[in-house]
Amino acid sequence: AQSVTQLDSQVPVFEEAPVELRCNYSSSVSVYLFWYVQYPNQGLQLLLKYLSGSTLVKGINGFEAEFNKSQTSFHLRKPSVHISDTAEYFCAVSGGGATNKLIFGTGTLLAVQP
Amino acid sequence: ETGVTQTPRHLVMGMTNKKSLKCEQHLGHNAMYWYKQSAKKPLELMFVYSLEERVENNSVPSRFSPECPNSSHLFLHLHTLQPEDSALYLCASSLTSGASYEQYFGPGTRLTVT
After folding, report:
1. Are B41 and B84 in contact (CB under 8 A)?
2. What are the tens digits of pLDDT across the range A42-59?
3. Residues B104/B2, Cβ–Cβ less than 8 Å
4. Which residues in B lie closer than 8 A to residue A41 (C-beta atoms)?
């Protein structure tokens, strides 16, 4: 069975500071990893994904994530955040297959303060 | 319209009412999903349809009844709901073949059961 752990429920950070949102996963098969962002009163939007190849993945809005197989982690980073990055961030894992089912973490609220 | 759309965006219903949520995808995908998002809980996958066949039902109560008449449309029929069913209901779609496995989400329907 697959699972995702986001240990930080909320991360406060000042504008223009760097941020890292942590994600750890467990799976007995090869995985595909995703980060989604949810702004208030909206659905989920894909930030970036890791399917294979380079372990450093770049996404939209200046975010990037690094896949670390030995540590089973897929942490999300941004070198300098903006007020507009305030949102809920979800890490997810999929084993692909016929249903392409996603297993989500509980989410991390990134609260950017001026 | 592009992407994944959901109607209505907000719904208030009594416990004895019958209502339906609608989802439509304009992306040419072959799989569609219903998720429930409650406060402080991970996204819960409710149903998966692949090529218009229901392939997963995650122990969802029978008061929720999905319908997928074609690959572009997905409904969630609701009847005799409970207050604990109040949540954001998200629809998503994806391809289940090829290199890309991400799911595309609609904006959600905010359901309040009174």
Report:
1. no
2. 899 999 999 888 999 999
3. no
4. 107, 110
